[in-house]
Design goal:
2 helices, Porin, globular, eight-stranded antiparallel barrel, mainly beta, single chain
Length: 198
Amino acid sequence: MPTTTCYDNPAGIWRQPACVSALSKNLHAHLDLAQQNRERCADRRCASLKTLHVLEMEMDPHECDSPAGKRVNGLITVRRLVTIFDRNSGERGVHAGDFLWSNSSGLRIVGRMSGITNAGLLRAPGFKDCEVCRQPYVLYGRMCGRIAATRIAALEGCQILAMYRIVLETPDSGSGDLFEGAAGPGTLEGAIMCACKR
């Protein structure tokens, strides 16, 4: 699956006239473990765990969704979500994967998601009683994608940029099972960017 250049070029954003629409979704995520690999790095004296999961995220529009955002719905599938953890799946990790966002109306968005696993951003001093810095089974990150196919003319050639937060629970309440069968709610907040025709 081809990767997508993220809409994060300051000069390009400044030069290119574009329209921006809110994208706001409630997610329900499910992870299935496909593979794992433990590694040691002798020169740095560290141990890592790498996992490969299949991730699926169903979605519902949130009240903050724009009219354009409500037309962008469906299922997000990541066939190879790769995570590297410090020692084990309960420690800090970095994850990445290429996604396909599709629905039965012919929508296809392709792109990449990447972020941090097992970390809490909603923590003191900025936030009260929300998270701590070591927050198991939480995924934070960014998604960048381009609309590769659509039957809606107004969405042709547009891009998406979104942030996500997913909170997972495992079938045995998190006993270090490498996120196997983990599922839970999430939120996605972002924007649809459509370049104006000059």
